[in-house]
Amino acid sequence: MAENLSGLDTFPKLLQHHARTRAERPAMREKDLGIWQTWSWRRFAEEVRSLASGLAAQGFKRGDHLAIVGDNRPRVYAAMCAAQCLGGIAVPLYQDAAAAEMAFPIQNAAIEYAIAEDQEQVDKLLEILPQCPQLAHIYFDEPRGMRHYTQPQLMSCDKLVELGGESHRRDPAFLEGEIAQGAGADTAAMFFTSGTTGVPKGVVLTHASMIDRAAAAAEMEGLNDADVVLAYLPPAWVGQNIFSYAQSFVTGYCVCCPESAETVTSDMRDIGPTYYFAPPRVFEALLTQVSIRMEDASAFKRSLYRYFMEVARRVGGEILDGRNVAILDRLMYWLGDAMVYGPLRNVLGMSRVRVAYTAGEAIGPDLFRFYRSLGINLKQLYGSTETSVFVCVQPNGQVKADTVGPAVKGVELSFTPERELLIRSPGLFKEYYRNPEATAASKDAQGWFHTGDAGYVDADGHLKIIDRVKDVGKLASGSLFAPKYLENKLKFFPFIKEAVAFGHSRDRVCAFINMDMEAVGNWAEKRGMPYSGYVDLASRDEVYGLIRECIEKVNADLATEPEIASSQIQRFLILHKELDADDGELTRTRKVRRLHVGEKYAALVDALYGGKQVVHVEAQVRYEDGRTGSISADLKIRDTKTFPPAAARKAA
User: Exposure of 625 by Cβ count < 10 A (0-12 exposed, 13-18 middle, 19+ buried)?
Assistant: First the structure.
């Protein structure tokens, strides 16, 4: 990077730097009531100063934790920096978490101070006060609905800012002194893991670890203050925090906050981000929308789309990587760009994307190639909360569908005899908060972090992740069984939203399928098929036939891969409900909790392997408003066609 950031070893010091050197440049934009509001670096720094001074006047001090819960908003990020100005620690919490889920991190970190976005989040915090009596200060940003709340713990953020302004005027040197005391080795933030396999753990990250990794990746990609990012994923997820906070503070680029989750796509078209991140599920959902729109298009447009997408699949990735392509193919791709790819990128809001990342879990190779074939520079990265995200990134021109790239500058990789990946990096976490046993189990005396992921480095130096070590198993025959690999292949199809594969120590592979209600509903309506809801649609023989076709295409693909050809899916059922984080079936980052799902629906697993054709299920579900209800249904179980391994076919 061109800028010299030496000595700027904390986020508050970086903020001061931007407020001096690019005071009127946009730091953040927020869409409110359909209008984009811009916060300059000067205004953002002033907001941070007032919040920090107000917190100090309320008793917040060095080492204290500040819980922050809300959607992406400038004040959410200003609150994080305000805590850090005072030597405090930001603890962002998932805004869609139930009240009971917030109790553990608040208790674990003995949090006394919290900032909540609105009435909904305030209600959750008030609900858990009996379990968290130490939570003495709750500041709310949005006053709507709060008029009649009289709890002594409550204060508006506007009032806190007012107190901060008065405090700063009385002692303007105080905050400068607090910021100067900060050092890179200080704790900057704590992120709670998603709890895929158990109780969440508080991952403690320092200023130095986050800034180092943010800077290394920014240097690699040539990021600067002209770049634009859309902040739409939960701020409590470390990935969003790195992209919308750490790298913004390192480079000075602008972060844009959409009006709501429902307006993300249209807001993307408004701002045209140049740097974009999305987990595979978001790319899957976007492709599903494209597929539905194409089904609704005229026959001419569908044929045009199919023709030029075939051209794109053949040469799009090659052109994006700067490789030699025949003149005729290049000409046809140029024509396709004018007629199909360019308009499609615009619909997706990706017309200006220069660098796009996906991570969190493996992305299906066909899905990955689809976006790259459109001319979108989509790359895979690998990292985790404990590594400040950036461990491996695919460099431009070296992008492969089945790897996550080589190690980023400063990172070392190693492997145990069981193929478990070990990492040493400047971005490693300090510890799991108040959990020395878990810290010692994950980070050894030599500084290696044990990731729990199984993988290897290929001949080109790229890391390839197979699955979680604990999930990689064997069928009864001894053949390799990697459930996540199978699930990702299934989820490429727009009609399949989630999949859970079973097979370890068994004679065959079976799967639960969650259909995509939007895609399958649209498919059903096109065929004049009436249905009353998810359960009704999921039980239709026609839908089972549709899903079976998808699975059999995956099986045909698996037959060409000798190591995993034995893992073809032989039986499946369509679940009666969507897997849901509120029901404990997904983490808050929308990863399937496979072990929990297998235990919760053990009767369904037994039916798959017991040769049954129908199984009755009754389940409790939790609605968004906290109410619980029950679902009762008879689920069908169907067999699928499998294929002989490619090697066997050739031998024959």
Answer: exposed
User: Residue 193: its pLDDT value, please?
Assistant: 85
Partner residues linked to 634 by β-bridges: 616
What is the arithmetic mean of pLDDT over 300-305? Answer: 92
Q: Are residues 250 and 233 in the same domain?
A: yes
CA 501 and chain centroid, separation:
21
Q: What are phi and psi of 386, to 5 degrees?
A: -70, -15
- Boundaries of domain holding 251: 11-255
Q: What is the mean pLDDT of residues 363-385?
A: 91
Q: 531: burial class by Cβ within 10 Å (0-12, 13-18, 19+)?
A: middle
- Measured CA to CA, the distance from residue 52 to residue 45 in angstroms comes to 10
State how beta strands 65-69 and 113-116 pair. parallel
Q: Rounded CA gap, 180 and 8, in Å?
A: 10
* Per-residue model confidence (pLDDT) at position 180: 97
Place of tokens 């990265």: 381
What amino acid is encoded at 30 in this protein?
E
pLDDT band at residue 513 under the 50/70/90 scheme: very high
69 strand-pairing partners: 93, 116
Q: What are phi and psi of 39, to 5 degrees?
A: -105, 115
**C-alpha–C-alpha distance, residues 336 and 124, integer Å:** 51
pLDDT for 334 equals 97
Instruction: Compute the 3-state secondary structure of the chain and give helix, strand, coil in percent, each to the nearest 5.
Output: 40, 20, 35
Quote the number of domains for the chain: 3
Give residue for tokens 């023709």: 307
Above 60 in pLDDT, residue 652? no
Whether residues 292 and 225 fall in one domain: no
Of 201, 227, 255, the position where a domain reaches its end is 255
Residue count of the chain, please give it. Answer: 652
Tell me the whole-structure pTM to 2 decimals. 0.80
Domain end marker among 238, 255, 272: 255
Q: For 343-365, how does the pLDDT look when each residue is reduced to its tens digit (9 = 90+)?
A: 999 999 999 999 999 987 777 77
Give the ranges where 33-118 is alpha helix by DSSP (H): 41-57, 74-85, 99-108
